[in-house]
């Protein structure tokens, strides 16, 4: 089936006595046993599993063409479950512009447990030189945050298969509708469901989908169920509801971002636009081959420095100045000031999450803010 059909039907397998057409919200924390000690409803205790979470996990599994999924209470908890599942002393390779929250996690919580090389994974040729005897995993993020770099998933999978490594892919910017890393050879796909999957900036969550239910996956499932960083039934209910419109929302995000990127790329007050859909993007051809469209995120380098970037983000009216992404409303952010003093993000970079407002209004708003800088 196609994503539009999966999105609407794959989470609806929960049977209810009242004949609900959509899955009801099931808040019970505990479930009845039968006289033999079994659980006729298939659930025992809601940290271990519950109907709404099973519905979400089934839906994500099908959308990503995987074997199983684990839902978590945040994207950070999902990523952390992968790092926790690795043996202490393991070495991992991660992108130099890895999502800031994961980089912080690895450098603080895992500082004495794992060793990490942060490298530019867009240059596939140089990667093998970093593989050590204790290397177990390459973590990629594509498109990346906030530079919108694109990593060649198939090429990376050739390397990880040759060296018997895990390939994990943070696919948050793409959503399951634009790219399916498992079909390109990844072992694990990670999403912050807070972003496009939730899509309305009102639920925090994360998920992992695996290509196969192997030993690593058993350790991850154990971390989910025994570690307990699980989403609530209501979070899962909201996500299943949101996913029904995900394929159509993604079309709108992609169309608006593409038009805005082209407008900004021609604008005299703009130095550069990072958007994988622009033919000027260094990995445009890879993006074209592994994604069905180019997403709703772009970054723009305005002429001048910090002050000009601040002027623009402080003077737009429709774009809300806030972090995060993937919601129906457009967001704008001066990324370097969010990341703090040790950031490598350029001071004139503005990150934009292009929402579903009318594109003419978005362009007019950006244009009047750019007119204020010199
Ligand atoms: C937001 C985000 C995360 C972290 O997810 P949370 O839900 O905020 O914990 C991880 N990776 C990327 C690319 C993100 O944008």
Automatic annotation (TrEMBL):
Record's keyword terms, sorted: Pyridoxal phosphate
Keyword Acetylation (UniProt): no
CDD domains in UniProt: CGS_like
Family as reported in the entry's similarity comment: Belongs to the trans-sulfuration enzymes family.
Species this chain originates from: Pedobacter duraquae
Protein name: Cystathionine gamma-synthase
UniProt KW rRNA-binding keyword: no
GO molecular function terms attached to this record: cystathionine gamma-lyase activity; pyridoxal phosphate binding
Cofactors (names): pyridoxal 5'-phosphate
Modified residues (N6-(pyridoxal phosphate)lysine): 195
One GO cellular component, as annotated: cytoplasm
GO biological process: cysteine biosynthetic process via cystathionine; transsulfuration
A Pfam family the protein falls into: Cys_Met_Meta_PP
